[in-house]
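Progress report, Aim 2. The chain analyzed during this reporting quarter is listed below.
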Amino acid sequence: METRFEVAVEHPVLKAGALDVQQTAAVQAVKFVRRLGALNALQMRTVEEALAQVLGLQLANEGSQPQP
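Predicted structure tokens for the chain:
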């Protein structure tokens, strides 16, 4: 990993550093040409944790319970 924003996830179609959570943005579905693959639950959790850290958020099932 080159920066703290790059997420290391081993996947057959991804190059090292392919997942960067620094400048996330919404993308319209029409921009996607074809599906290259999918992340499994553990890989997706790794991305979620990195994104939450960058944004200063706490994931729902981490730490304390929601306040009423």
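Helices lie at 41-55. The longest helix spans residues 41-55. These observations will guide the mutagenesis work planned for the next reporting period.
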